[in-house]
Amino acid sequence: EGPESFPPLRNEEAVRVLQGRMKGIQGHCNSCYMDAALFSLFSCTSVLDSMLFMPFPLCDRNVQGILRDEIVSPLRRNGFVRASSVMHLREQLTDKGPCSSFTNAEKDPEEFLNLIMQQILGIEPLLKLQSGGQKEQECYCYQIFMDKQEDLVVPDVQQLVERSFLSSDLKLVEIPSCFIIQMPRFGKEYKMFSKIIPSLELDITDLLLDSPRECCLCGDVATLECS
């Protein structure tokens, strides 16, 4: 018999299960980067559920089991994950990874995602990006980089992604199966924006390389792009 699976939470059920005190993933000892990443990846979407079940080439079944049975299943079933379960995962990452401080230090979410997706599970990169006609790069998530912009007080995710791609001269080589985006709102010292409005849908039409788009003047297929 295979491991028990719980579908991701949707709509009214998500509100019922996840709202209130003692809900979500319990924080402990600088775990916020991992708690937020795990909640985002698994609470209300199944797009990365292959991470929980697939026998990937490098797959460490012990880490996969902890992720599935001690974190994702309780989160979807009860809306709550104990800090001890996340610490169990952090201890395994410390053993498996090149870095010894996953159990106590604050990390960048990208470091955690690269370790668990690439080195521990062996998943193919989720994103293919190209900058200014150079060789394409593969990665697992995209971190928004941009200068402070006075006209953006409370931005939404769509605005941030578009401006970040524009400032770095980036394009998506293909439509990603999963687009993990790290907001420019992290660390204890600096917050670029006090709030960011989640975009419930992301329009990536203008971010795709060589994708046919309409001319803003005549409506025909565009032949030139002005940044």
Describe this structure in words.
This is CYLD hydrolase. InterPro entries: Papain-like_cys_pep_sf, USP_CS. Keywords: Cytoplasm, Hydrolase. This protein has 2 domains: about 10-120, Alpha-Beta Complex (Cathepsin B, Chain A); about 125-225, no CATH class. The mean pLDDT is about 90. It contains 7 helices and 7 strands. The protein is globular, with a radius of gyration of 19 Å. β3 (about 125-130) and β4 form a beta hairpin. Helix content is about 35%, strand content about 10%.
In short:
The protein has helices at 11-18, 32-42, 50-53, 61-78, 83-96, 109-121, 157-168, and strands spanning 24-25, 80-81, 127-131, 137-139, 142-143, 170-172, 181-182.
List the main descriptive attributes of the protein structure presented here.
single chain, mainly alpha, globular, Cathepsin B, Chain A, two-stranded parallel ribbon, three-stranded antiparallel sheet
Please render the helix and strand layout as text.
Blueprint: H1 11-18, E1 24-25, H2 32-42, H3 50-53, H4 61-78, E2 80-81, H5 83-96, H6 109-121, E3 127-131, E4 137-139, E5 142-143, H7 157-168, E6 170-172, E7 181-182
Parallel strand pairs: 1-2, 5-7
Antiparallel strand pairs: 3-4, 3-6
Helix pairs in contact: 4-5
Organism: Thryothorus ludovicianus
Keywords: Cytoplasm, Hydrolase
InterPro entries: Papain-like_cys_pep_sf, USP_CS
